[in-house]
Amino acid sequence: MTKVIKTDKAPPPFSAYSQAVEVPANARLLFVSGQVGVTPQGELPDDLETQHELCWTNTFAVLEAAGMDKTNIVEVWTIVTDHSQVAMSREIRTRLLGHDKLASTTLVCGLANPDWKVEVAVRAAKVD
């Protein structure tokens, strides 16, 4: 469905993602707002890895509500609050998504709530 774009005229990816992803004209697009590491009941775990995993659990739930799943993700935006989280974030993303046919951006900055340590937003596409 999607087409991975590669060029040697730009740096190669630094982990499991693509330089660009092209979505076909007839695809249905879904823009998932940033999901944080909070349970549906509003509980925020202290454990950093659990917060990262909950971001993805919440993202997958939103995708499911739209009739999509992780294979429909074409772009990921990950925001972490400290550089020390980047490697773990990449490892968890790769473990849970299991593919590199997506575009990806990682930012290190503050979030709306200082207790949140990570936020993940995705764009997905599906041809019905």
Walkthrough of the structure:
This protein is an alpha+beta fold and 128 residues long. The chain is 23% helix and 30% strand. It has helices at 48-65, 86-97; strands at residues 3-5, 20-22, 28-36, 73-80, 103-108, 118-126. The chain has a four-stranded mixed beta sheet. It starts with a strand and ends with a strand.
At a glance:
The chain has 128 residues and is an alpha+beta fold. The chain has helices at 48-65, 86-97; strands at residues 3-5, 20-22, 28-36, 73-80, 103-108, 118-126. β4 (73-80), α2 (86-97) and β5 (103-108) form a beta-alpha-beta unit.
What is this structure's SSE topology?
Layout: E1 3-5, E2 20-22, E3 28-36, H1 48-65, E4 73-80, H2 86-97, E5 103-108, E6 118-126
Parallel strand pairs: 4-5
Antiparallel strand pairs: 1-2, 3-6, 4-6
> What portion of the residues fall into strands of 2 or more residues?
25-35%
What would you call the shape? globular
Q: Give the C-alpha Rg.
A: 15 Å
Can you identify the CATH superfamily?
RutC-like
CATH architecture: 2-Layer Sandwich
Elements, N to C (H/E): EEEHEHEE
Mean pLDDT equals 94
Number of domains: 1
The computed structural class is alpha+beta
- The CATH topology is 60s Ribosomal Protein L30, Chain: A
Helix content: 10-25%
> Distance N terminus to C terminus?
11 Å
What's the arrangement of strands in the largest beta sheet? 3-6-4-5
Low-confidence parts lasting 5 or more residues at pLDDT below 50?
none
Largest sheet: 4 strands, mixed
Characteristic key phrases:
alpha+beta, two-stranded antiparallel sheet, globular, 60s Ribosomal Protein L30, Chain: A, single chain, 128 residues, 6 strands
